Hints:
By secondary structure, the protein is of the alpha+beta class. Helices cover 27% and strands 36% of the residues. It has one domain (5-87): RRM (RNA recognition motif) domain (Alpha-Beta Plaits, 2-Layer Sandwich). It has helices spanning 16-25, 38-49, 92-95, and strands at 9-12, 27-32, 53-61, 65-68, 71-74, 78-85. The strands form 2 sheets. A 4-stranded antiparallel β-sheet has the order 1-2-6-3. A two-stranded antiparallel sheet has the order 4-5. A hairpin with a 2-residue loop joins strand 4 and strand 5. The radius of gyration is 15 Å and the shape is globular. The mean pLDDT is 91.
Amino acid sequence: MKQGLHDVLVRPLLTEKITAMRESGNKVGFVVRAEANRIQIKRAVESALKVRVERVNVLNVMGKTKRLGRFAGKKPDWKKAIVTLKEGEKLEMYESV
Length: 97
């Protein structure tokens, strides 16, 4: 099934570490689809947020194993993208908070 550019980005990633990276290195984080690659992520961020992207780093995060008594389960795996914006670019959705 072919996916559009806006289907690549699932949600923004807001953690303390990502916030520190945004303030110091002009980087933002997103949870993306597991099938997405760097080129699709770059195009999706540029078209959806109207910014220029310099670099995209991608990490596969493995889900943790959780137990409830003798029953074991597993949280789902997910993919994280850390997007470096070009010099002078800013996202207004983070600036207003």
